[in-house]
Amino acid sequence: MFVCEGNICRSPLAERVLSKALEGVDQGIAVTSAGTRARVGEPMDEMTAEIARELGVDPTGHLAHQVTSQDLREASLVLTANRDQRSAVVRLHPRAVKYALTIRQLGRILEEGADRGELPTVDSLPPNERVDALLSFVMRRRGLRYRLDPSADNVIDPYGQSAEVHQLAVTQMLPALNLLSTALGGSPVGWPAGRRAKF
Q1: pLDDT by residue (tens digit) across 88-109?
Q2: What are the structural domain ranges in the chain?
Q3: Can you give the residue ranges of the Phosphotyrosine protein phosphatase I domain (predicted)?
Q4: Phi, psi for residue 68 in degrees, rounded to 5
Q5: Looking at the domain covering 2-183, what would its CATH class be?
Q6: Would the pTM count as exceeding 0.85?
């Protein structure tokens, strides 16, 4: 489950990107999203939706959803857009402290694990067990590196801002989403050939 604030920009895009990236993986991994202060019932933000289409992801059909304690009880892994939202998730469901991280924090841990050849091999596991195996690896390592700048774990909030800020938010999330997808046996999703995000 991906969680941001309004559930119309960052978390629904992350949900759709990861779902697309995992299309080739056997069924068994459900990807969802919600907001800590969701704009309930609203579709994906139009600027975010345009970027989704550029990534080959269908933004239609999304309706913003308010995160609930039941959502968090049912989730195996919760990835938030920033540290404040992670704190909100843990306040709502304290047991989520064991499986909630920010998107960029997860990406950093996976990148370090991949660089060292330490990521667990999950290809032989059923899809529903792959997330648990990967989460076990991530949780053992999340406290090993101290970040001098906690804001490095946050994805910028693009709501109401320029197209460039929307692109920046996506670019901050994509590496982690692709690392997660690849670790679970999926494929990366990227900008079209020749496309360059502008900042």
Answers
A1: 999 999 999 999 999 999 999 9
A2: 2-183
A3: 1-116
A4: -125, 165
A5: alpha beta
A6: yes
pLDDT value of residue 190: 81
What was the pLDDT predicted at 90?
97
CB contact at 8 A, 6 and 36: no
Instruction: Provide the pLDDT for residue 196.
Output: 47
